[in-house]
Amino acid sequence: MFTYVLYNSAGFMCSLLSAILIPPFLFNYSTQFISAVILDPASFVIGMFFFLIGFLASSALFRNSIELLYAYSKKGNISLGEIFVSSLYLLNFIVLFLLNFSVFLLFFLMTVIYGMISINLKRHLSYERSREEL
Q: Which residues span the membrane (predicted)?
């Protein structure tokens, strides 16, 4: 449970910093984005670094919440508190949506895609139970 809280706080802080440091990209005003990146490349690079760490932490939480929900539906030994704590990362997306929509959209898409790629549904089930399903 501590790892879920650690991942959630790391994902929140990194996504918040990336939303602040990366300039918003609007398709109508793409020249403003390019000029902001050219004039201040250090903040863009630091923002992308925080973006990478934040989306990796959020995708791990996304993966864990899907796996825990699956294990709970299969009557695994999972508590509802564990599912709730692992699902708190969804609040990060609300804050990102309010701060920087372009970063939110990219962050959300990458989190969902990478989280779905790394799902292992038998991770939280017991050995005997996963053997019975085979």
A: 5-27, 33-57, 78-98, 104-121
